[in-house]
Model the fold of this input.
Amino acid sequence: MKHIFNSTAFILLVFIGFSCTKPNKGTLSSPNGTIKLNFYLTSQGQAAFKVYYNNKMILDESTLGVSLYEEPDLMEGFRITKTEYRNMDETWEMPWGEQRYVQNHFQEMKVLLTEKDNLKRTYAVVFRLFDDGLGFRYEFPQQPHMADLKIAEENTLLQLTEDYTCWWIPGDWDIYEHLFNKSRFTEIDALSKRDHPNLAQTYIPFNAVNTPFTMRSDNGTHLSFHEAALLNYSGLTYEIIPDKLQLRSILVGSERTPYKVSVATPFHTPWRSIQIADKAADLISSRLIVNLNEPNVLGDVSWVKPTKYIGIWWEMHLDKSTWDYSGTQDMSASQGARPHGKHGATTTNTKRYIDFAADNNIGAVLVEGWNTGWENWIGTDKREGIFDFVTPYPDYDLQEVVDHANSKGVRMIMHHETSSAITTYEQQMDTAYALMEHLGIDMVKTGYVGTILPKGEYHHGQFMVNHYHRVIQKAAEKGVMVNSHEPIMATGLRRTYPNDVSREGLRGQEFNAWASDGGNPPSHLPTIAFTRMLAGPIDYTPGIFNIKLKPYKKDNQVNTTLAQQLALYVVIYSPLQMAADLPEYYEGHPAFQFIRDVGVDWEQSLVLNGEVGEYVTIARQERTTGNWFVGSITNEQTRELTIKTDFLDPNTTYKVTLYADGNDAHWDKNPLSYTISHPIVSSDTEIKLNLASGGGAAISFIRETE
Ligand code: NOJ
Ligand code: CA
Done:
């Protein structure tokens, strides 16, 4: 298969709008007709709809409405006053991404509802049907009796028609760092999965799940529930009502207000999205979430540049070195604390990393623990005022480091661990981002460890959604890309703000270094690819070669083979990819060549196969070079997969290198067993991949001159 489009940007825009008024219902089809929706009012005058896929009902009567604080609810007693239809077919260009061109093709229906009695208040429901799923949202026009809205709860109720097999994490208003569970919908018991080590989260007392929430029917239809364009609103969780096959929205709350969202009209909610696919692989190819977001508002974003990076990071997670300088609680460096000698972020160590990056086709270096405050950053409520994000420890010369990086053509990544002391971070932001501008640093990794201060706020509530948004905007003003840890979940805002490049929002590699529950099992990433990854790019930090973590950790290890660590650069999408291990484990290692070679920005991506939680194979073509890379990963199950290489250009010759599990490889018993070979392939051949238990394969196809 060749490029879908040639290099001249091809932008097609068809935009037809018309409106009509119907008494009490409306129907809508996706462009190719596979998805259909009926909208109507119940006998109580409540908005309701049903959804059909390939003429089979997949959502039975599902109802809409919101409860307001100290005002009558917007639920029943409505009539339809207007129905408008619109369709869109455009192709837009991603400044960076899984592919260059994205088709945004949908049919839209907007139904305006007005109260029959009472205050004659109005709201609208807008549906967009794509061929790969749908989105709907509530819109609240400005009106006399609704100048502002205090939403106590959104009452979106979705009615499934069968008992799906589901992959879920418990509803949690602070963190997504959970292992996925697999069960039938009727057996989801999130309350029993709340006892989790290492986390500072607050659990909600509901049998609820976080999104993306992926499920498969017995006949193979896959659904994934999430949200898009989350701005100025609280995050969404779904309560599971197992015996009724229902999902009911529960917005993330705040202990500081008796309502969950406070906004002024006109206002619209984020999109509630449902991706629909015949096969699991198509969920990953779906661009529904970004399509439901507004176009780029930043203009020229050529300064947003995807890159690989290394960092002074894993060595702290391994306890080889520390973030802090003195280890003396309540004494900062400026108060004269004496260094304990294990501090990781020293000028000398950073230069070593910079040199290594420059020698190995790695564009950037992250340094954590560079700024004062790490002696007292965690575990108490006295976190405000600890970090200022501008004062380095005495053994770290910021200017010298930046000068050295510049001389080597390497970019530095700033680190802002806020410790969730939000007031401090907001107060310091101007100064902190001005420092970055002054130094010419164009990337920041932010972090939000711990419960939120002010107390009573949650990571995923409206207060924090607005904070994360302000950070993206401030960073954009200063030409800075943001990679956020302990973030709000991605909802496709990277389309609107292309500097919103990556985030954590899952149990990352770090858990393998210190989790007391054995780390991330081999099924973790084959599940993540079909769940969390549907939301957007992931800073998973792959590439650990010292799988057993010796001599640093006795009781922890990475639960994959080495070949799988390579495959993750292709499978787990991010425009920032860390080579997370210590440079000494890469030096002289033949398999490191794959990390040197692999791209981070893609012309196109093809999901070649996959089943949720089991295995997945993805091929991606690099934008700048036209080189192809393939990654394939499996869970505990060994697997033989055959992939066609018909994506290669028949008129080009490629140097092909296959990094595979050795015959005796096994994630636990023999993770370092791997082979490197150079199979002869062309666009009409196949490659057989033998994946070990917890294993993987990575292939590079480097173009040779034609
Ligand atoms: C948790 C983040 O996920 C990790 O990457 C970081 O090193 C620590 N917090 C310290 O900020
Ligand atoms: Ca984390």
